[in-house]
Amino acid sequence: MPERYDVIIVGTGAGGGTLAHTLALSGKRILLLERGDYLPRETANWDPEEVFVDGRYISTETWYDADGKAFQPQVHYFVGGATKLYGAALYRLRPQDFGEVRHVDGISPSWPLSYDDFEPWYTRAEWLYQVHGNHGDDPTEGHWSKEYPWPAVTHEPRLQQIFDDLKTGGYQPFHAPCGILLDETDRAKSACIRCAWCDGYPCLVHAKSDAEVIAVRPLLDRPNVTLLVNAEVIRLETDPTGRIVTGVVVSRNGGREVYEADIVALCAGAANSAKILLASAGDSHPHGLANGSDQVGRNYMFHNSKAVVALADEPNETVFQKTLGLNDFYFGSDDYPWPAGSIQMVGKSNAAAMRGEEPTLTKLAPKRSLEETARHAVDFWLSTEDLPRPENRVTLAPDGNVRLAYTPTNNDEAGHLYHQLKKILNHIGMSAHHVLRKNFYMSMNIEIAGVAHQAGSARFGTDPATSVLDVNCKAHELDNLYVVDTSFFPSIGAVNPALTAMANAIRVGEHLCERMQ
After folding, report:
1. Which of 29, 475, 495, 84 is nearest to 276 (CA)?
2. Do the strands 101-103 and 131-132 form a parallel or antiparallel pair, or are they unpaired?
3. What span, in angstroms and rounded, lies between the C-alpha atoms of 505 and 313?
4. For the chain, which residues score pLDDT lower than 50?
5. pTM surpassing 0.85?
6. Which of 106, 334, 400, 418 has its CA 20 to 30 A from that of 317?
7. Is 177 in contact with 90 (CB distance < 8 Å)?
8. Selection from 388, 315, 308, 302 nearest residue 343 by Cα
């Protein structure tokens, strides 16, 4: 007989890892299934050639676009999921993001819950993930019930100069919320050494507030928690009624294993959770598990983003650059009625990263020239909200891998945000700039390969005809199946989705604790 658990959690990232951490104190038997392994701690963690040029930590699997063309998705399968290489920018969605928002290309739909419903869970997530910030700095931010556990990370001199110049120019910059294990009052006790290798790199010293370090690793000595690595879930089995998941089928060590639990939570990421549901089609669910509404895999979103390298005469000796944000154009401006999005800093550029992300542009550039360019660079990250479109969707290719049909939205808004940044750069003396028209971690020419902020493939709602999950993220059509990653998002806003995924996982975890009692 298969071994039985109270809860099986598929995936160990922002959703799955946080859910496991929330459930662990219940004493219930929990099985964590991670398709990858532990990310090794090695000198290559901080080697830009290995990370950006060679793509050392990117999965080698193949996905396909709408035309069947193969590409390598920029995904990372490790304990801790995508958070192992994220930039740890832990923003709340704005209160307006939970309501209907009109964009140039259409409507961003409202959520079935409000910002007020999420606020307590945001606070708990911020404290769990040790977020540094100052509530009230960002004028677009919603109310908060508790201050961040740590004060905002201080700007280094070049960033402080930019911050001051923005203030002088009438803008409203703020300290970005960062999830790092840094104690600026006592560096001897600080895990974080405030280095350049945070955004887009694994943390060699385990000082990034990722899901492995914060949520999963502290559970591994608990007798009620089991973690299996290199365990890829390939389908879910149900009873004859189709209402109960009875088996989680896993490919592991070259064999097939089946595990059982009273409750199953998919937390594999928006694309792979949809893939598992679609691959679990059967007599009771002929079009895929929980897919009677034909919504599984649809409404796939990720941010319409640009990385901008700005140059100035003076060098930028900043090491940790992700301390500044600007949301002045988040909901539009006097001369533009549409929401344009957020401006953040991105990790400090270097010659190898530039070569990895723009191989054609930098092919003939001498190494010394690139190094000098990087020395003077200040790096910005622009995010514009993507809209949920039914035709932007995950389906299964003939070989069972992900097929992703995707067309970006709100390009006009993204262009306007870039236009505003150019005005800002001129104001603060950085008129030379270059746009890397790629998504985070990209070293490929196919735009859809950059899937760092994927969301929306199994959205939650109150109407089973238009959603996959109910407000507690339980599948409408099944009694014991939950999806607790960014799949549940009805819309994505224009800030990083990680903190919302973490907050929701705590919320659903508390619901499951009550249910299991």
Report:
1. 475
2. unpaired
3. 46
4. 364, 366, 432, 435-446
5. yes
6. 418
7. yes
8. 308
Question: 320 vs 149, 194, 213, CA distance in Å?
Answer: 20, 6, 20
CB 68 within 8 A of CB 50: no
| pLDDT tens digits along 47-96 | 988 998 889 999 999 999 999 999 999 999 999 999 999 999 999 999 99
Looking only at the bridges linking them, the beta strands covering 4-10 and 432-436 are: unpaired
Q: Using the 8-state DSSP alphabet, how is residue 206 labeled?
A: S
Number of helices followed by number of strands (H, E) in the chain:
11, 21
Q: Is the dihedral of CA 186, 135, 426, 200 positive or negative?
A: positive
Task: For residues 58 and 458, give the distance between their C-alpha atoms in angstroms, rounded to a whole number.
Answer: 25
Q: Which of 55, 53, 323 is nearest to 196 (CA)?
A: 323
pLDDT tens-place string over residues 434-454: 544 433 322 223 367 778 899
Rounded to an integer, what distance in angstroms lies between the CA atom of residue 145 and that of residue 317?
Answer: 37
Nearest residue to 267 via CA among 512, 494, 32: 32
Give the relative orientation of helices 115-128 and 498-516 as an angle to the nearest 10 degrees.
100
CA distance 416 to 306: 12
Please give the domain boundaries of the chain with CATH numbers for all domains.
4-516 (3.50.50.60)
